[in-house]
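Run log // design_07
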């Protein structure tokens, strides 16, 4: 079995249909279908079932997909290691991060890393919550994850890389003290992310310590919608400091919560040998925050 067929199969799984996968792979659909059929024949089991214009992954296909992702990730790491044995002259780095971390600090870290290693291509993927970051690492979709601090399973490794300050933003014209006591959120409408999102978890935990619950007026998954919702008067929101600065420039009232709230940040990776690009990126971020980095 060659890696090409496995990668074609995974493309169909990820895109949801042969036609969409063929476009992404720049292949004809018949050629793609033939490659997947050959793979199924080699494995002795159907991996996909056609349903209308899409596909359904069989039980055998689901089992094979998990192993294929890890195998292809290891294959790419080995390929990069051989090619870059004399130095980091290329490669591709795939990173998973929470959307609220994408612009700060991930974008800054990726930008300075690319300045140091301009031949390394970087792909950033969003994850809805810390559990999805871990799942991406486990499956081999990405090599490195950047997430908020959370309990880690035994099959992944984490490095503490500092913390992110959090602020409260209120609709324009709001009269609020600075700092703003968290107990003052009692009875106030709040714009919040869904349960499981790291900022929602931090907010709920802080209020629970005060024996309070957030009065959720709007629950929103789209991060870009938070500032417009607050500006329109929908309620207050807990956001990272850099988001609060943008909101303030657009007219929102900003306050520091009391007690102060912060989000601990982690770089997450699988144990064992990583690609040269992933190793260099982790070292780059650790040096940027040293001496605070510590393995978990």
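design_07 sequence
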């Amino acid at each position: 079995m060659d890696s090409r067929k496995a990668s074609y199969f995974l493309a169909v799984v990820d895109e949801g249909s042969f036609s969409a996968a063929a476009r992404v792979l720049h292949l004809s659909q018949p050629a793609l279908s033939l490659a997947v059929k050959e793979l199924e024949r080699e494995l002795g089991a159907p991996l996909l079932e056609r349903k209308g214009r899409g596909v359904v992954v069989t039980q055998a296909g689901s089992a094979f997909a998990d192993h294929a992702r890890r195998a292809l990730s290891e294959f790419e790491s080995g390929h990069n290691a051989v090619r870059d044995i004399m130095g980091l002259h290329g490669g591709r780095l795939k990173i998973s991060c929470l959307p609220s971390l994408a612009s700060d600090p991930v974008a800054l870290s990726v930008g300075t890393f690319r300045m140091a290693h301009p031949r390394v291509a970087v792909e950033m993927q969003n994850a809805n919550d810390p559990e999805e970051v871990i799942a991406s690492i486990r499956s081999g979709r990405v090599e490195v994850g950047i997430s908020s601090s959370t309990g880690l399973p035994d099959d992944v490794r984490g490095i503490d890389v500092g913390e992110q300050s959090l602020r409260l933003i209120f609709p324009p014209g709001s009269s609020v003290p600075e700092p703003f006591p968290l107990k003052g959120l009692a009875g106030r409408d709040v714009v919040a992310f869904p349960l499981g999102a790291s900022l929602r978890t931090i907010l709920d935990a802080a209020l629970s310590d005060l024996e309070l619950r957030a009065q959720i007026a709007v629950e929103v998954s789209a991060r870009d919608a938070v500032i417009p919702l607050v500006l329109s008067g929908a309620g207050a929101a807990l956001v990272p400091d850099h988001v609060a600065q943008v909101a303030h420039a657009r007219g929102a009232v900003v306050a520091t919560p009391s007690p102060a709230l912060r989000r601990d940040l982690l770089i997450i990776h699988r144990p064992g040998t990583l690609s040269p690009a992933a190793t260099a990126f982790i070292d780059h971020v650790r040096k940027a925050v040293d001496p605070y980095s510590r393995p978990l």
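Confidence is low (pLDDT under 50) at residues 290-296.
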